[in-house]
Amino acid sequence: LVQGCRFPSGGGRIAPGAMPWSHRWIGNPLFSKLVRWWFRAPIHDVYCGMRGFTKALYDRLNLRCTGMEFATEMIIKSSLYGVRMAEVPITLHRDGRVAHAPHLKTLRDGWRTLRFFLMYSPRRLFLLPGAVLIGLGLAGYAVAMPHMSIRSVSFDAHTLLVSTLALLLGYQAVLMGLFVKTFAAQEGLSPEDPVVARLAEFVTLDKGLLIGALMFLAGLALLGATVRQWYAAGFGPLNYQYTMRLAIPGAALAALGFQTLLSSFMLGILNMRRR
Q: Which residues have a Cβ under 8 Å from the Cβ of 75 and sit 6 or more positions away?
């Protein structure tokens, strides 16, 4: 793939008035930097339409986009598949056409580009935010379960509740990331992720079902202990400082186990290779 570059950072030149200032100084440089940072593409002008490529490469990339994302899809997928890429400095002159106004819309097209970048980067869209949320949830459990106090801040049942929300959201985000990476590899949208491939070999459908069932049963056991406490109190008022330390983790484990059960089946379906 040979790509033209109109920006001085890639050796090119932009004639006065040839490009709107927002495109020249904000939009294009920002997305060009993102495509280098996120996808390791050696490109300094991501929107340049002057490019050359072989028919074999075009067939291999199996491009799907039909709108303006088509150009960035070609660059991203070429980089993901390790295609040889090069930039050639060019000069952008002022557009002399007067038949119609420019068809580019700065905010709309910028959002479409960012949206496409995120869809092709499930690690940043799903996995990293999910991992952060899970980490925050576990940290909340670590200080709330023993009812710790740090200086004048006391961590109790409310911290457990918010931590459970972080765990559930984070776990769901991580699962979505695994779904997307598996689907993208099966459909040829991106190369197979070696980490996800090794994880799929280690955590099989049966193992996932077993882990999910154990988590679900552990959650039910904690919820059952809460009911027993309620029964011992004659179904009257409870010591919520104690019982919520059973009820909230029990609900969290039951929900995470149920998610694991369904997600194991989902990943099993996605990994069924076509004949």
A: 1, 3, 35, 39, 41, 43, 46, 85
pLDDT one-digit tens code per residue, 195-224: 888 887 788 888 999 999 999 999 999 999
Model pLDDT for residues 12-60, shown as the tens digit of each residue: 999 998 888 988 999 999 999 999 999 999 999 999 989 999 999 999 9
Q: Please classify residue 109 by burial: count the beta carbons closer than 10 Å to its beta carbon, then call 0-12 exposed, 13-18 middle and 19+ buried.
A: middle
Strands, E assignment, 51-179: 51-52, 86-89, 91-92, 149-150, 153-154
d(CA 6, CA 10): 7
CA-wise closest residue to 74 among 88, 87, 60: 60
pTM of the predicted structure, to 2 decimals: 0.81
**Are 176 and 126 a contacting pair, CB within 8 Å?**
yes
Token pair recorded at residue 25: 């100084």
- What does the block give as tokens for 41? 């593409």
> How many CB atoms are located within 10 Å of the residue 231 CB?
9
Calpha distance 94→126 (Å, rounded): 41
CA distances from 63 to 70, 74, 106, 115, 188 (A): 7, 7, 24, 17, 10
Proportion of the chain in helix, strand, coil states, percent, rounded to 5: 65, 5, 30
Rounded Cα gap, residues 72 and 79, in angstroms: 11
